Amino acid sequence: MTVPLRPLLLLLALLPISCGAETPDVGSRRPNVLLLSLDSVRPDELSIYGGISPWKPASVISPNIDALANGGVRFTQAVSTTSWTLPAHMALLTGLPDRLHGVTDNHQRLDPAIGTLAETLGARGYRTAGFFSGPNLHPVFGFANGFETYENKGSNHPDLSVFADERPGAMVAVHKDSHEDITSPALVDAASDFLADMARGDDPFFCFVHWWDPHYDYMAPAEFVDRFARDDFDPETADVHGKWEVDKLKSDWNERSAKDLLALYHSELAFTDSEVGRLLSRLDELELADDTLVILVSDHGEEFFDHDRWGHQRTLYDEVVRVPLIMRLPGVLPRETVANGQARIQDIFATVADLTDSALPNSMSTKDEAGFIGTSLRPLWENPNHLGFPQLMRLDVPYRGIDLAGLRFNGEANERWKVVLNATTQIASIVDLAADPKERKVIEIHNYPASAHPLIERTRSALEQVERTKAHMPSTPNHGGALLTPDHHAELERLGYFDKAGED
Ligand SMILES: [Zn+2]
215 C-alpha to center of ligand 1: Å? Predict the structure, then answer.
């Protein structure tokens, strides 16, 4: 009797363990995901990050975003991969730094072999929808990959027909028109309709919303301008318009006009915040908020004369690479929590995968000795002393002669260096962010390829490691190194997409 019983007892003894492993308790842990990307939002101009109106200090800039932050985790050292829209959003939605996703200018599109967040969540049984409002989020670059629906809510270019528009410079006109467009109400209406549809079903959903309104031009409705502009500000006669094309040529910037410009930006932020509030209220009304991971982030910041310029896509200074990042998931993420470790825009993908128990795509599982592929930010909210992760940054704008690569250290061993290599000027810039957070005292080393310096060597070594990772990334045969197809390229060129006037 003992002999036949032994295997049975062994089996019984193993059962609880084996059941536990085979029926994970994660089956029900599939929160909805609402990912809000607010374009060009500099964190330190939001109230919760310390932003104060220059003319009307009592006017709160971002009450709804502040409330969202208080209900979850706010990251104070979140960093993008670059300082403009297209590559930053590609990093957000692929979990990869720019060199690895490969879409660093308007000539390129995403290799279909690289997985996207929408594909990952779709494979996990999520319903997926994306709503965007700026031309750099166009499906031609690969942003629609994995979405069941992916809609343009910009009123000046409502569908794909712009890419069949053969007028010279049509795409530049689209950029200019898009800057003057007001899109948040249409975005929120469309996303709200999708949420209402989802509330009627049982499937979890992923909803991505890209907000173009905070991007220049700053043209908020008058009621928001009134809250932040000086009392005698008259938009009809003012020196400052908040229009990039008008104001970038000004040579007589002074303290008053700079304050006026910032007030117009704050007006746009407040308007955007009110629309964010409208969408989050809808989430509450539909009784979805308790089961929805809400993430709010930006793709890059904005310069306000911190280094003598206005705008973005020119440098890798902190005012353009730092972004706000807030996550809320009731009952899972802690409330009223501040995480001070360095969080990277490409980490959002892995964090969502972690919180939804989704498998990462092959492109994010590539052997990565440099450690720049996104990873879950869970350690940062679980351990307030966690330093986060070093960030690799890139800004490659050939028509402006800009070719920058940078490394922002995470503070390990008390090192808070930022190193930027300028391949055009051959000058390496080194900043100690702990001693000089505004990057006023930049150490410049000329002819850096030939000049020995340990920080430069570490930066170059990181860049070389990324190249080795790149060699192992999945790719599609004949994708041409992620370049646009010749047909796409010719079409975009004909449309003026590569003209120098293109901004972003
Ligand atoms: Zn942007």
Answer: 7
Q: Which one has a higher pLDDT value, 414 or 443?
A: 443
Q: What is the pLDDT of residue 478?
A: 73
d(CA 121, CA 113): 16
Alpha-carbon distance of 375 to 347, in angstroms, equals 5
CATH of domain 29-390+481-494: 3.40.720.10
Alpha carbon distance 458, 394 (integer Å) = 16
For residue 105, what pLDDT is reported? 80
CA of residue 445 to ligand 1 center, whole Å? 30
CA 39 to ligand 1 centroid distance, Å: 5
How far does the centroid of ligand 1 lie from the alpha carbon of residue 499, in Å? 18
Q: How far is CA 312 from the centre of its chain?
A: 14
Burial 77-105 (b: 16+ CB within 10 A, else e): bbbbbbbbbbbbbbbbbbbbbbbbbbbbe
Q: What is the pTM of this model?
A: 0.89
Query: pLDDT digit string (tens) for 64-109?
Result: 999 999 999 999 999 999 999 999 999 999 999 999 999 988 778 8
504 CA to centre of ligand 1 in angstroms: 6
